[in-house]
């Protein structure tokens, strides 16, 4: 009997191999908090360590660089293109399934809008568009605004205004 | 002096030896088969979920990027389960009365998260980090399979140590351009002969050293 008692814990520990450990992982249920969530929202009024930096990033427009535009294209394609489509006409796949069409970026009102306007819409939402503040970091909002401007230029430039080299490039891309 | 062994002792010994050998062999085969069965690896088994969310529809049909919902995947250990707010970005306007989405609306109204059941899980003693894999160009499809072809989410790869090590010991063939990391169909890319050296070049460029990648403490702490 004594031998059996000694060997029992060994047999039992072998069942799970520490696969499930008694700790509170992200997204799990817990008895530590009243609402049962491990991931707690910060109490109202909390100031994050990076809040000032994020706010500064939101108010100061970063210098326009190739890297900023490329970051903007990547973020635009992830978060915006589902509704605004890859060229910015507002014909994305989600509006095609019944979501109200957003305005095209190529209308005079939005062509005249400053980059800060797009940053503001991403931050606070607009009409039926939700805020994207939880998905797009402040610096990325400026990158997207810069890329929207690039899209606007791309759709409003005459072919005759391009250099020969640019025109060959465009034709090659079109033939592909 | 009496005989110690009866006349049939030899036969019985042979029979016992045979049964023992068959038992060990059969037991080994059973355990091996069980460990590799989908019952253990969970490949292809669908979990019950509060909402029958279809990756096939959202990823394959609508072309929504993985990062639209799994926002933390590039910067954190976890990919991030989307909060109800993200579902409602679209579903505040479309399928607003769909019975299947009732739990989503309830979740938003009552400020309680949806309780999804985990599909892709590693044991608690494994510390997997999404961000480093994504930033080095291990595409989502490498571990999660063709989610754009899964009406209901299921595990596509075995998630056993052997499988992790296969890649950690020879990462080159699994690397893809990090800017296309969420792309799911790589058949055309793989067919291009020019891409054969890509992985080897990236291993060098990123300073990835396979001889360190299978150290225990890379995944276990």
UniProtKB/TrEMBL annotation, chain A:
Pfam families: Cytochrome_CBB3 (PF13442). It comes from the Bacteria. Residues 67-152 form the Cytochrome c domain. Gene3D superfamilies: Cytochrome c-like domain. The keyword Heme applies. Keywords: Heme, Iron, Metal-binding. InterPro entries: Cyt_c-like_dom, Cyt_c-like_dom_sf. Signal peptide: none annotated. This is Cytochrome c. It comes from Microvirga puerhi.
TrEMBL record, chain B:
It comes from the Bacteria. InterPro entries: Multihaem_cyt_sf (IPR036280). CDD domains: Cytochrom_C3. The chain crosses the membrane at residues 15-35. The keyword Ion transport does not apply. The keyword Transmembrane applies. Keywords: Membrane, Transmembrane, Transmembrane helix. This is Cytochrome c family protein. It comes from Microvirga puerhi.
């Amino acid at each position: 009997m004594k031998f059996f008692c000694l060997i029992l814990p060994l047999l039992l520990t072998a069942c799970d191999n520490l696969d499930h450990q008694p700790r509170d992982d992200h997204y799990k249920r817990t008895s530590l908090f009243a609402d049962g969530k491990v991931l707690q929202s910060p109490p109202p009024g909390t100031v994050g360590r990076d809040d000032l930096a994020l706010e500064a990033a939101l108010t100061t427009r970063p210098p326009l660089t190739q890297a900023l535009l490329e970051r903007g294209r990547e973020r635009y394609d992830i978060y915006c293109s589902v509704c605004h489509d890859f060229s910015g006409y507002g014909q994305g796949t989600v509006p095609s399934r019944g979501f109200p069409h957003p305005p095209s970026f190529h209308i005079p009102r939005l062509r005249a809008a400053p980059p800060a306007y797009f940053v503001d819409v991403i931050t606070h939402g607009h009409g039926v568009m939700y805020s994207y503040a939880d998905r797009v970091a402040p610096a990325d909002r400026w990158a997207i605004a810069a890329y929207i401007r690039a899209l606007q230029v791309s759709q409003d430039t005459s072919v005759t205004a391009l250099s020969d080299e640019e025109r060959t490039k465009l034709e090659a891309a079109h033939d592909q | 002096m009496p005989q110690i062994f009866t006349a049939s002792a030899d036969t019985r010994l042979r029979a016992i030896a045979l049964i023992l050998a068959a038992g060990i062999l059969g037991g080994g085969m059973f355990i091996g088969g069980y460990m590799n069965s989908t019952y253990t690896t969970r490949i292809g088994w669908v979990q019950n979920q509060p909402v029958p969310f279809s990756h096939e529809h959202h990823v394959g049909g609508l072309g929504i990027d993985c990062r639209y919902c799994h926002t933390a995947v590039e910067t954190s250990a976890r990919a991030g389960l989307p909060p109800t707010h993200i579902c409602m970005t679209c579903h505040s306007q479309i399928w607003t009365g769909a019975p299947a989405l009732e739990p989503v609306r309830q979740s938003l109204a009552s400020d309680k998260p949806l309780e999804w059941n985990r599909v892709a899980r590693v044991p608690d003693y494994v510390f997997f980090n999404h961000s480093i894999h994504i930033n080095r160009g291990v595409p989502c499809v490498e571990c999660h399979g063709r989610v754009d072809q899964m009406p209901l989410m299921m595990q596509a790869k075995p998630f056993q140590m052997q499988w992790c090590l296969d890649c950690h010991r020879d990462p080159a063939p699994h690397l893809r351009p990090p800017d296309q990391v969420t792309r799911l169909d790589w058949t055309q890319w793989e067919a291009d002969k020019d891409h054969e050296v890509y992985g080897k070049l990236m291993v060098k460029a990123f300073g990835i050293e396979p001889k360190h990648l299978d150290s225990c403490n890379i995944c276990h702490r």
